[in-house]
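Subject: Phosphoenolpyruvate-protein phosphotransferase

B.,
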Amino acid sequence: MRELRGIGASPGGAAGPVYRLAPPPALPPLAETVDPAAEKTAVREAVLAVAADLTRRADTAVDATAAEVLRAQVMMAQDETLIDAADTAIDGGADAPHAITDVLAGHRAAFEAAGGYLAERVSDLDDLRDRLVAACLGQPMPGVPDPGHPYLLIARDLAPADTAGLQPGLVLGLVTAEGGPTSHTAILARTLGIPAVVRCAGILDVTDGALVSLDGASGVVVAGVSADTVRTVNANRLAEIERRARSHGPGRTRDGHPVALLANIGSARDLTGEVEGVGLFRTELLYLDRSDAPSHDEQVAAYRDVFAALPGRKVVVRTLDAGADKPLPFLRLADEPNPALGVRGLRVARQAPTVLTTQLAAIAAAAAATDADVWVMAPMVATAAEAAAFAESCREYGLPTAGVMIEVPAAALRAGQVLRHVDFLSVGTNDLSQYTFAADRMCGDLADLLDPWQPALIALLAACATAGVAAGKPVGVCGESAADPSFALVLAGLGITSLSMAPRSIPAVRESLAAHTLNECRQIAEAALAAPSPEAARAAVAVLRVSYGWATAAPDEGIRICG
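Prediction pasted inline below.
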């Protein structure tokens, strides 16, 4: 057996034969003679074929975020500037595959230089290039294998078009050589309930068909396990899935302390199964790929669909989280040297105030037409003054419960002052990690710094929770860390009042909380805070959980069977 280590990205244990993602098409030598008219036609036919395929995948995607990214790829493919640039390259002597490759290489360099959201889209451009080249060459689209039986998928990384159609019953687990814990692949794996490990060096050296086990919590991958191990790991996983399917009710510790378990959604279609409410309603889907802002009535209809599905339950709406690092054409914001640190989130209102006021008016109108308990929060808030101004705007539009997201360390450090002006806080641990450690979320080389078990991040979470207790106001967590069953105990012990995550993650967190008392959670939080490293924090919590009688819980929370 050979043990490999990566970063646990989606909790769960899985084992089976591995198969790798189909490789991209090899670019052939440049044709000696080129018929420009024929090559230009080939480019257009490739664009039509790829756009049709991506649109089909978007329409059938199980995840709204994946569908959103696929539709963005369609927009990229159909962009006239891309086609015109390819025509120019062909006029210069290139054939269709080389023209497409050269043009998208230029776009790729520009995206990387821009940083932030655009840098995150580099893999989307690479995938688009490979699909267009394959179409030009008459080759099959690169993508997910189908060996006819369940398996573990391994790849350098996965593009949205690959992940959009993943079937949890067929793909038992994912292991990638690149990526990070907040990458699209990791987020979608958690959404689908597929165990995943990212940034696993050496995984591409494992041959197709080899038996491998993975632990999506610890990041341990073992190649060369026995068939008995495969059967044991998967039997344990199925038993756990069946047990969690029977899990219902509100989140609470073993002694009855409530910790609300809420869902992260992008639209009404993401509401699957039983949920206590919504802790993060991302409203960006309504704004993407548009040359003008959605109208008041259009927004009211979209928000009302979600509110009507949750009568009497809490729905926390995040106002538009976009800007220079998540560009929307209709905003017409100026280019910035460092977009991730520029005009984004609530800061957009400084330059385009009507975008926020129209959205608040639409949210208020939709809320008035339903029985949902609608809360509103702003992203990218840095100061108490910004929080106060946002809360005042919410109340002007008849929205009584206003809060802010804590993603900027300055806001976390002044959480008490922020809470003087708003009704609640919601910590977005993905961005808070990014800004605390000066580590881009999409930079795989820095993925270890984005580990939610980093003691410095836990200290900021503790500061927010303590401020909430002192003010008598709720503080939730809506970042991906909330979906980790063990980390949920740390959060509960710190005083966090609600956890929001992909709906599929809720049962595991519910069962984890139910296995421990509030006092045990507090001791677990103290141990994590005192640890010198993420690894030490995880280990300390695991030891405490066993001492509290947690002996057989979850082969997906760090228990590894090596055959």
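The longest helix spans residues 36-60.

T.
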